[in-house]
Write a structure and sequence with these properties.
Number of domains: 2
CATH architecture of the largest domain: 6 Propeller
Largest sheet: 4 strands, antiparallel
Distance between the termini: 30 Å
CATH superfamily of the largest domain: TolB, C-terminal domain
Shape: globular
Structural class: mainly beta
Radius of gyration: 22 Å
Amino acid sequence: MKKKYFLIFTLYLLISTKLVNAQVIDIVNNLSLPFHVTINNNNLYFDEDDSGIISKIDITITNSSPEFIIGQFSNGLIISGNYMYNADYLSVKKIDLSSTLSTSTTLVSSDRRIIGIALNGNDFYYVTSSNGSSITSKLFRIDINSTNLTPELIFSGLIPKTFDMVFSGNILYILSTSIASGPGQNTGKIYKVDVSDSNPTITEIITGLDYPRGLAINNNYLYFSEEPYIKRINLTETNPSATIIASGLDNPFDLTFGGNDLYFTQASDGSGKISKIASETLNTLEFDNFDRKIYLYPNPADQYIVVNSFSVNRYKIYSIYGKITLNGKMKSNNKIDIQDIENGLYFLQFENGEVLKFIKK
């Protein structure tokens, strides 16, 4: 009888619980600080910051070996037609990919570091900044098909350290972190600005991020990396909250979509990799209404778990045998101490019926 109730309880909780980690597939391993990534047709291009090279792989071939493209450091990669545009610190380079021997030419130069790039049609946007915290960032635009490549200033005053930018129509999304910030400072923000406005203004859409890096958009979702996670927000929501898509990653950096598959770099020195989350997984997450308002982290955890919502109050933690292991009231910091429970799989249930699954390690 005890075994019967245990099976019923476990099945109930498994059905009630939505997974908080998508399946991650590694595509290329043993890279040296792979930072930026972009896709053109079946080719995925990436840079390695430690060696200062740009390479490509064919994503239709299993275990495709990287093919060298050009030796060049990069602060971003974008492809349009036969050309790759690359932010090379103090300049924007144009690389002819149709040439057997790839060479680069300087498209535009800057006296300040170029730290973010994006393309909208023929309009190429880039952000310049400086290592000095008193220097504001500036957003510029050039027409890559024009003979006049004089940069047009769109606006200035961004938080200095811009990691990535991406377009959805005429809306430019900007991921930024305070220049003096590092992991644990929670100063990261995502902004948006309509570049078609005659007097564009910047608006915050999400704040309090912990050193976020890359951005990508697909099907009304804005995806971003935030060590050790990949998260997303629903752009159709007025006040979106971030949802964890994948966790336990090793310094996830840039993101890009190939079709509906999400590709991203994990920027470890010597053991870096390029990975992907298949469209089937992302579609399943959408079908299962994965964008819950309540989630927990870290998972697995060894000392404590944190619940992202202040809307919950009392909780109970069940073992897989249906025994209440812990119960109590949420503290002001939303942390639950789990140091004294045994390792294993547990279910956190709130008084509103919401159930989350986590692993104590």
